[in-house]
Amino acid sequence: MASNILTSIFGSRNDRLLKTYRKTIERINALEPQYELLTDDELRGKTAEFKGRVGAGETLDAILPEAFALVREGSKRSMKMRHFDVQMLGGMSLHHGKISEMGTGEGKTLTSTLPVFLNALTGKGVHVVTVNDYLASRDARWMGRLYSFLGMTVGINLPSVSREEKQAAYQADITYGTNNEYGFDYLRDNMVYEVADRVQRGLNFAIIDEVDSILIDEARTPLIISGQAEDNTEMYLAMNKVVPTLTLQEGEADPRTGEGVTKPGDFTLDEKTQQVFLTEQGHENAEGILYKLGLIPEGATLYDPSNISLVHHLYAALRANHLYHRDQHYVVQDGEIVIVDEFTGRLMSGRRWSDGLHQAVEAKEGVAIQAENQTLASITFQNYFRLYAKLSGMTGTADTEAYEFAEIYGLETTVIPPNRKSQRGDQLDRVYKTTKEKYDAAITDIRECYERGQPVLVGTTSIENSEIIDELLIKANLPHQVLNAKQHAREADIIAQAGRSGMITIATNMAGRGTDIVLGGNLEKLTEPVTSDESLDEAVKAAEVVKLKEQWSAEHEKVKALGGLRIIATERHESRRIDNQLRGRSGRQGDPGSSRFYLSLDDPLMRIFAGDRVKSIMDRLKMPEGEAIEAGIVTRSIESAQRKVEARNFDTRKQLLEYDDVANDQRKVIYQQRNDIMDASSLREQISSLREGCFIDLTRQYVPFESVEEQWDIAGLERVLRDEWQIVLELADEIEGSSVITDEDILEKVDKAANAAFDAKVAAIGEENFLQFERIVLLQSIDTHWREHLSSLDYLRKGIHLRGYAQKQPKQEYKREAFELFGQLLDSVKNDVTKILMTVKVQSADELGQAAAAMENRAENMFNVSYSAPNEDGDAQIQDEDDPRQKPLPVGTPTVGRNEACPCGSGKKFKQCHGKLN
Ligand code: ADP
C-alpha cells in the first residue's frame, strides 16, 4: 500500500525513465523539418557522416537524436511508415540494453530499426534475433529496404547457406537470424581448425525479438552439437589380434647395464597409473605385425607422424587386455561392457571409458563395438547471449518475468505505452465444475461469434488440446482452420487471414508467431494476386486494387462493429505471460476486441493449486450444476496459483543455470585457449611450458619434492626417460660424483635434456614448418579431452543428487569435482601434446605438413554431426535428417487410422507422428 502511494506521488521508475526519454523525443521531432528538406542522397550522406563521427570518438548516445531522426525520415521515404513517438521510446530503451515491452501490433519490427541503425554505426555488427527462419528472412527483407536506403548492408544468416555466405552475412552491418543459428555458429566457430573457417566476428550487440520465448521458455534445454564417431570397428578388432603376439617384459631393467630383466619383452605395465609402454623391441615387433596386417607401409615406424592414431589404438588394446579385468573393472551384461566403480563396486551403467579404451575392451570381450555418440559442444541460450557486449530484447509480455530478466541477465524491463490505447475487454474467467460443461460453454460462445460474423481465435497450449477442440467443432458443424507451429511461412499466411469475418481459427500458442491479425484480413495478401499478375495492364490493376480496398474497408468496419477479434481459451497456461500473449493477439493499435477463458475444476492447474479454494467458494455460493462461477476473486486465485508455478519454474531454470555456469566458465577458458592457439604466430612458449609441466610431474614420481637421495629412484627415472621419451640421461654417475645435488637440480637437468631433445628436432625441420603441426596437435588434444570432459560433467551432474544422502551440498560437490576434472583435462592435454611432439620422428618439412593436413582433415570429419535445439515447446528436438519422422511420407503411402502405427516406421502412433495436425 505504502509503495503504491509513493508511486503515485513520485511516479514509478518506469514513468521516470519514459519522462527522460520523452525529452529526447522532443529533440528528435525538432530535427524532422530539417531532415525533410534533404535529398535522398544527402540523407544517405548522413550515414557516412555519423560513421565518421563515431569513429572519431563521439558516443552513440550523443548521436542518438540525429540518428533516430534520420531513420524516421528514411522510413517515411522508403517504406511509407513514420515511426510513432512510442516507437522512439521503445528504440531508446533497446539502445540502452533493456527489454522493451510493447504489445502485439505496436510495430516492434520497425521499432528495432532505430537502435539497430544507431549501433551499426560502430561497424562492429548488430545481430537481430528472431524465433524462426521465416521471420528472419521476412524482417531482413522488409526492413532491408530502409537499411539499404540509408546505405547500410544487411545479411541473413540461415542454416542452409554455405560457409562463405554465412561469413558475408556476419560481415554485413546488420545481421538477421535465429537464436539457434547464432548459437550453433558460435559453437562451430570454436571447433574449426583454421581462422579462415570462422563465420562470426565478435558478439557486439544483439536485439532479441520475442525475448521471453528465447530467454525463458527455451532456456531449459541447451543447444547441443553431437557426433557419432566414425566406425573404427575394424581397427579395434585388428589391434585386438596384435596384442597376443606381444609379450610382457618382466623384471626391472637397469637402464645402463640392462640387467635385472628376467624376461625381455615388448611392453611394460604400470599398474599404478594404468599405463603401458612399448619397449624398443616392442616397437620393432609391432611394426612388423602391423606391416603384415597391411596397416602400415613397409619400413614405416610407429613414430611417424601419420601413425599417431595407430599407436593410440595399439595402446588402448594393450591396456584393455592387460590392465582391465573382467568382474573387477567391468562386467559384461547383456552384450555390453558396464564399468564397475572401483571404490563402491557400483555398476556405472551408461558410462563409457574414453580414448577408445571402451571399444578396445568390447573387442577383447567379443561384444558389439558401439560407435559412441558424443556431445561435441553445447551451450544454453542464457550463456550464449550473455556473451554479447550489449543485449536487449522486445516482446509483448515481459513484465511478469521482469524479475528473472533482471536477476539472470541484468536486463531491465521498460513498459512502453501503446500508440493507441487498446479497446480490448478481458472478461473474467468462467469456471465450471466439469470439463464437459466447460467445453460446451466454449463451443456455444464460438457458435455465437460465428453466427454474428465475428472472427474467433481459439488459443490452446498444446497440440492435444487443439485436437479436442478440432473434434468438438467438427461435431458442432462449425467450419474452422487448425494451426500448430511447424510451417512458419504458410502459417503466417493463414494467421494473417484470421481476422476475417466469421473465421474460426484454432492455434497453439506458437503458431504464426510474429504475425499480425488484422481485422478484416490482411490487405496486402488480398491485393497481391492482382498486383503480381503480369498479364494485367496497369490501369486494370489499379482499378481492381481500388475495388479490393473498398471491399476490405467494408469488411474491416464490419468486424470492428462486431467487437473485433474474440479470443477464447479453454485452459490457463502455467504462466500468466503465455495467457497474456494469447490475449495480446486481439485489440492491436486501438482495435476493439475481447477475451474469455473457460475453465473447470478438473484442469490440472486448478486441481493442483487453486481447486480447493475455488471449490469452497462455489460451495458457499451454492452453485447449481451446469452453471459457472465468474468472479474477480476466482480469477485472482488462479493468478496466484500461476504465480506459484512461475516461481517454481524460475527456481528450476536458476538451478540449471547454476550448474551450467560451472561448465560455462570452463568452456570460456577452453575456447579462449583455442582462439589464442589459432591466432598465434608462434606456439613456442605454450609448448615449452606444457613440456616443463609434464617433465616436472614425471620426475616427481621418481624424485619426490624435498626428498633426500635415499628416497630417489634414479634408475627408474632414467629408464622411463629412455624408453618412453627417447632421452638418454646419465644421472646416476653424476649423482655419485657429487655430494650436493638436490632434487631441484635433477628437475633442472631433466628439463634441460628435454628442451635440448626438442630443440634439436625443431631445428632439423625449421620452426615455421613445425608450427602448423604443433597447432593441430594442440587443438586436437584440447578438443578430444574437452569432449570427454563434457561427458564426465554430464555424468557427474546426473549422479550428484545421490550425494544428498551423505549430507553434502550437491551443488558445492559438483563444483568441486568439476574443478578437479578440469584439472585432469589440462593435465591430459599437457601430457598428450608433449608426448606426441617429443616422440614424433620427422624426416622432412613436407612429410610433417602432410601429416598435419591429414590430422586436420581427420579431426574435421571424425563425426557424423547432428544438431539439437529446444523445440518450440522448450524441449530438446533432434534435427536429424535421417530421422524418418522428420521426412515427409513418400507419395502413395497407404492411409492408416489415427491410432495405428505410423507408416514411417517411427514406432509411434500415426496421430502422434505424421498424422499430427498440420
Ligand atoms: P509487432 O511485432 O509489434 O506485433 P509488427 O512489427 O509485426 O508488430 O507490426 C505490425 C504492423 O504495424 C505491421 O503491419 C507494420 O507495417 C505496422 N506498423 C508498425 N509501425 C508502423 C508505423 N509507424 N506506421 C505505420 N504502420 C506501422
UniProtKB/TrEMBL annotation:
Membrane topology label: Peripheral membrane protein
Keywords: ATP-binding, Cell inner membrane, Cell membrane, Cytoplasm, Membrane, Metal-binding, Nucleotide-binding, Protein transport, Translocase, Translocation, Transport, Zinc
InterPro entries in the record: Helicase_ATP-bd, Helicase_C-like, P-loop_NTPase, SEC_C_motif, SecA, SecA_CS, SecA_DEAD, SecA_motor_DEAD
Subcellular location, record wording: Cell membrane; Cytoplasm
Pfam families: P-loop_SecA (PF21090), SEC-C (PF02810), SecA_DEAD (PF07517), SecA_PP_bind (PF01043), SecA_SW (PF07516)
Biological processes annotated in GO: intracellular protein transmembrane transport; protein import; protein targeting; protein transport by the Sec complex
UniProt-listed SUPFAM superfamilies: Helical scaffold and wing domains of SecA, P-loop containing nucleoside triphosphate hydrolases, Pre-protein crosslinking domain of SecA
Record domain Helicase ATP-binding: where: 89-247
This protein's record includes keyword Transmembrane: no
Documented EC number(s): 7.4.2.8
PANTHER family: CHLOROPLAST PROTEIN-TRANSPORTING ATPASE, SECA INNER MEMBRANE COMPONENT OF SEC PROTEIN SECRETION SYSTEM
Subunit structure as annotated in this protein's UniProt entry: Monomer and homodimer. Part of the essential Sec protein translocation apparatus which comprises SecA, SecYEG and auxiliary proteins SecDF-YajC and YidC.
Record's protein name: Protein translocase subunit SecA
Naturally occurring in which organism (per UniProt): Polaromonas vacuolata
